[in-house]
## 1
Amino acid sequence: MSLQSIKYQRGSLEILDQLLLPVLSKYVPVRGVEDGWKVINKMQVRGAPAIAIVGCLSLAVEIHPEEFETKKSLRQEIEGKLNYLVSARPTAVNMKISADELIALSNELAKDDTVSVADMKQRFLHATEAMLEKDIADNRAIGANGAKTILEHVAETAGSAGASAVRVLTHCNTGSLATAGYGTALGVVRHLAELGKLEHVYCTETRPYNQGARLTAYELVHEKLPATLVLDSMVAALLRVKNIAAVVVGADRVAANGDTANKIGTYQIAVVAKHHGVPFYVAAPLTSIDLQIPSGDHIIIEVRPDREMTHVGEHRIAAPGISCWNPAFDVTPAALITGIITERGVFRPEVLKAEITALQS
Ligand SMILES: CSC[C@H]1O[C@H](OP(=O)(O)O)[C@H](O)[C@@H]1O
C-alpha cells in the first residue's frame, strides 16, 4: 500500500489515482498543465494542499524541457497556465495562493536585469519543488500544535496536570493523501499517536466520494492506528456515548473571520459538537487561509456531478430520475470553531486575522 500521493523528480510527475483506492494503488503520469487540470478536476488527486502542489508541479514538468526566447514569454506562460489551473476546482484557496505567489516571483525575476531567462526558469522550478518539503514540515508543525492544544484542553477540563490518552473524531481525508505527506487534521492524529496519547480515532465515511471510508481508513489501517469507521449519520450518537475529547477536521478555505469551508458534512458535525460540548478544531496551513475574504459568505462552494451521489462506482444506488443536490463543501461559522490549528500556532477565530497579519508582517 502506498501513501505517497505525489511522486516527483525534475521533469517527471506522477499522482496516486485516488479514485481507485483502496482497491487499486495505481500511479498516473501528469505530463503538463492539461493533465494537471484534469486529475484535479476529476479528483484523481484531491485535498487542498495536494491540489496546489500537483497544479504547480504540472507546470514545472511542462516548462522544464522548453527553451524560452525571452523572460517576457516565460512570465506570460507562467501567469497564464497558473491562472488556468486555479479554475480546476474553485473552493480550496491553496492553488490560488500558490499561483499568486509564483506569479509575483516570476514578475520580480522578469524585471530584474541581472537575471537571465535560464536563471528565471531555474528559480521558478526550485520554488515549485520547495512546496513539497515545506508542506510536510508545515504538517508536522500542525500535528504538534494540534496535539498539544487538545491534550491541554482535556487536562484543563479534567482539572488534572496531564491528559490521559484521548478519543478524537475526524471527517473526510486530511492525511498523506490530501497533502505532500503526514497530513493536517490527520497529522494531529498522527502526533497524538506518536506521543502515546491516541486512545482511538473515529473517521466518518464522508459520502459521496467516501474520502473517509476509502482514504482515511486506508491510511489508519496502513499505520495500524486504533481506528473505527462510522457513517456520517452516526456522529451525534457517537458524541453522545463515546466520550470523544475533540473533533479535528481540515479546511479548504478559512475566511478572515474564521468561517471555514470544508468537506460537506463538516458544518453539521460542528453543530453536534457544540450541542455535546466537544471542542471542534480546524487544522490547516496558512496556505489555506484567505484573508482577502471577510467571511464564509464569500466562499464559492463547488457543486459536483449528480452521478457521484447516485452511483458507487458503476453500481446505481439512487432511483433513476431523482434530482440531486451535491455541494462538495459547506461553511462552518467561526462561532462553532474552538480553534484553528496552523503551523504557526493555534488561534481562536476572533483573533485569526490579527494574528496571521502580525506573523506575515
Ligand atoms: C488537507 S485539506 C483536505 C480537505 O480537502 C478535502 O476536500 P476534497 O477531498 O474534495 O479535495 C476535504 O475538504 C478536506 O478537509
## 2
Amino acid sequence: MTKTVYVLNGPNLNLLGTREPQVYGSQTLADVEQLCTEACARHGFTLVFRQSNHEGALVDWIHEAGRLHAAGQLAGLVLNAAAYTHTSVALLDAVKGTGVPLVELHISNVHAREAFRHHSYLSGVARAVMCGFGVQGYALAIDGLAQW
Ligand SMILES: O=C1C[C@@](O)(C(=O)O)C[C@@H](O)[C@@H]1O
C-alpha cells in the first residue's frame, strides 16, 4: 500500500521567490512542490502539498493527515508552520491530538535569527526538526522520514 506524505506550508510561504530572498532564497513554492514531488517519487510516496495563510485551514489539514495516520497510510507530515510556529497552541494541539509523525521544517536557521523565532510550540511534539538547509530541507526531510 502506498503511503502518503503531507507537506503543509503556513503564512507568507506563497510569497517564496520574492519574499526576503536573502533569507529564503529565490525559489518559489512551485519549485518547492517540485522538489517534494521528486523526493516522494524516489520513495514511492504519494504527495499532498498545500499552503495556507490561515491557521484554521492548517489545523483542518493536520486532522486530515491524522485520519490517514490512524488508517496506517501516512508516512509523515512535514510542516513549515512559518510564523505560526512561534505562536500557535492550536497547531500544537492538532499534532498532539492526531499523533501524526511530524517533521518541523524551516527554510532558514531560526536559531540564528531574532529571539522570538527561537521558541517553537511544535518542536516538543516533533519527531525531527529541520532548519537552515534552504528549500532543499524539504527533500531532505522526506528522505529522512522514509527511514522511519
Ligand atoms: O515565515 C517564516 C518562515 C520560517 O518558518 C522558515 O521557513 O525559515 C521561519 C519563521 O520564523 C518565519 O516566520
